[in-house]
Specification:
The complex is a heterodimer of chains A (about 350) and B (about 230). Chain A has about 350 residues and is of the alpha+beta class. Chain A is built from ten helices and seven strands. Chain A has two domains: about 5-185; about 190-340, Histidine kinase-like ATPase, C-terminal domain (Heat Shock Protein 90). Helix content of chain A is about 55%, strand content about 10%. In chain A, the strands form two sheets. A five-stranded mixed beta sheet of chain A has the order 2-4-5-7-6. A two-stranded antiparallel sheet of chain A has the order 1-3. In chain A, α1 runs parallel beside α3, α2 (about 35-50) packs parallel to α4 and α4 runs antiparallel to α5. Chain A is globular and about 65 Å long. Chain A starts with 6 loop residues before the first helix and ends in an 8-residue tail after the last strand. In chain B, α1 packs across α5 (about 105-120), α2 runs parallel beside α3 (about 60-70) and α6 (about 155-170) crosses α8 (about 195-205). Chain B is α/β, with parallel strands linked by helices. The chains are: A alpha+beta (about 350), B alpha/beta (about 230). Chains A and B meet through α5, α6, β1, α7 and β2 of A and α1 and α8 of B.
Chain lengths: ~350, ~230
């Protein structure tokens, strides 16, 4: 994180990055949602804080805030904001950037003080602590917004429902960003255990249980009579499947089923998720796993960060598994997750 | 009639406000603390029935507050945590917290969790000779038998013990470690611990109509298992 570059270079680079992202986003302004813009700017702020320190981080945060408001929130070319929901995005963006800049600064200040002997171990612990604290600091205001929206709803204001939905959406973005940071920073914790495929598929059913369209998700085993076990991290694997199922529900036409099946192939447990949507063209099937891929974003309906599939694949690979997008037998999209199977001698 | 009291320990005033609103239907008397130390003092003075505890307190770790509280209080403890803190949640449940809610939670989910928990703590103590019933599933603790819609279910001794522990703690999340300690007392966790999940899968195959859409034993991902909350 400590940069050997002189500050002038870091500052110029950060300002150039902000300018370049703003121009790039401007070209697509009509197709973008405000959340996408916020996300890209957030990355610029995080980069500036990481390489240039707190002053640069805060400067870039405030500058992006102004550019965001000026260029991307209607009415354009004014600091006015027409849509009240945009206020929410704008406010959360500013808070997120400032909190992140401050936390990165604190983490670095503490890091400098660490003796080099156990610097590595300590850095790992700090990375964990930093991410936990970012997570707590970002989710606490989201909890308040969500709770207050619920109160407003009980008073009969229907707009409150939209605020609650948008809060959930922001929470998903925060989760994706934190997971990506964890994967990139080597701070991912793995808890590989013998797990039953029954258990995993049951957790997928629980994941969609609160959705009004839960009946669309059809979960089954290739061979219902046999108990299957795999060696994997339950939480990370559930995250992969939840992501695939959410995508499938979004892309399949209303009232078409999403199938989740579990089976065995050689030494691997195989979980497939398929939908009846438009599917993924053959030449896109690899590309959708790269972060912020445009087609990947289009695939995920623009509602997510564009990070979901790339996080999922990396989570699968971290536990010696694979995640692929396959050619479906007829139409729609077909995703296949493979994980090592576990052989269990019947315990007493 | 004793006035029902709930205590909220959270340093964020806005969160306390949201929780106060959510609890106001069930609790006429709600007290609040912004620090762990203040919370412990209030808990000692007012003996609340329910404690809502945030993990990110400024003065002490939520874990310490929970351990301290558990030494002398029987209040139901619900922990508020940010996501990705599975390890912390497990430690808290192991040291006596009753349940947790992940931020940002929905008010409806929060209320449902609290009500289920209070219903459970309101149940009379389960002694020997009691029969526990949950839907068509019936457990006779004296005869050591389990039946499903009147039909006897054959369980191995380990499976029986596992189901007994889960059913006698209905509605409550049991961590893997708590279950392991209860089913294999005296044994150190390790190799055998992985079989816990295997045994749960086997029990589900015997009592659930559809083991991949369970109605009795629910999975709390990364944390443990929870038996349905039955009246």
């Amino acid at each position: 994180m400590r940069s050997a570059r002189p500050p002038v270079v870091t500052w110029s680079l950060s300002i150039a990055a902000l300018g370049a992202s703003a121009l790039m986003l401007l070209a697509f302004r009509s197709q973008l949602e405000t959340v996408h813009v916020a996300l890209v700017f957030l990355l610029v702020v995080l980069g500036a804080s990481a390489y240039g320190g707190r002053l640069l981080g805060v400067t870039i945060a405030v500058a992006s805030f102004l550019v965001f408001d000026w260029m991307f929130l209607p009415p354009y070319r004014t600091l006015l904001v027409r849509n009240p929901l945009d206020w929410l995005v704008l406010a959360v963006f500013l808070v997120t950037s400032l909190v992140a800049a401050q936390l990165l600064y604190l983490a670095r200040a503490e890091r400098v003080a660490i003796d080099s002997a156990d610097a590595l171990r300590e850095a790992d612990r700090l990375k964990d602590a930093l991410l936990a604290s970012v997570s707590h600091d970002l989710r606490t205001p989201l909890t308040t917004i969500k709770g207050l929206a619920h109160e407003l709803q009980s008073l009969g204001d229907e707009r409150a429902l939209i605020i609650e939905e948008q809060t959930d959406r922001l929470n998903r973005l925060v989760t994706d960003l934190l997971d990506m940071a964890r994967l990139n920073g080597g701070a991912l914790r793995l808890d590989i255990q013998v797990n039953a495929v029954d258990d995993l598929l049951g957790a997928v059913v629980q994941h969609v249980a609160a959705r009004p369209d839960r009946h669309r998700v059809i979960v089954s085993l290739d061979d219902p009579a046999t108990l299957l076990f795999g060696r994997f991290d339950f939480v990370h694997t559930l995250r992969i499947l939840a992501n695939l199922v959410d995508n499938a529900l979004k892309h399949g036409p209303v009232d078409t089923p999403v199938h989740v099946t579990g089976g065995l192939s050689g030494n691997e447990v195989v979980i497939r998720v398929s939908d009846h949507g438009p599917g993924v063209p053959e030449d896109e099937r690899e590309r959708i796993f790269t972060p912020f891929n445009r087609s990947g974003e289009a695939m995920t309906g623009g509602d997510s960060s564009g990070l979901g599939l790339s996080i999922s694949r990396r989570l699968a690979e971290a536990q010696s598994g694979t995640l692929k997008c396959l050619a479906p037998p007829d139409r729609g999209a077909l995703f296949e997750l493979r994980l090592p199977k576990a052989d269990i001698q019947e315990p007493a | 009639m004793v006035k029902r009291t709930a205590l909220i320990i959270d340093d964020e005033e806005q969160i306390r406000r949201v929780i106060r609103h959510a609890l106001s239907d069930d609790f006429p008397h709600i007290i609040e603390a912004a620090t762990g130390a203040e919370g412990l003092d209030l808990a000692a003075a007012e003996t609340p029935e329910l404690v809502i505890l945030d993990l990110g307190l400024p003065d002490m770790a939520g874990l310490e507050v929970c351990r301290d509280l558990r030494k002398w209080s029987t209040a139901a403890v619900v922990v508020l945590s940010a996501q990705h803190a599975d390890q912390e949640k497990i430690k808290l449940l192991d040291s006596g917290a009753d349940d947790y809610v992940t931020k940002p939670f929905s008010t409806l989910e929060f209320k449902a969790r609290v009500r289920a928990l209070l219903r459970r703590t309101a149940l009379p103590g389960i002694g020997t000779g009691t029969v526990i019933q949950c839907g068509e599933l019936k457990m006779d603790l004296t005869a050591r038998t389990v039946s499903l819609s009147g039909k006897r279910v054959h369980l191995t001794p380990t499976e029986w013990e596992l189901l007994r522990v889960l059913m006698t703690h209905g509605g409550r999340t049991m961590t893997h470690r708590q279950l392991f300690a209860a089913v294999w007392p005296g044994k150190s966790a390790g190799d055998a611990q992985q079989y816990l999940r295997v045994h749960v899968a086997n029990v589900r195959r015997k009592i659930e109509a559809n083991p991949i859409n369970p109605r009795f034993i629910f999975t709390e991902p990364g944390v443990g298992y929870r038996f349905a909350s039955c009246d």
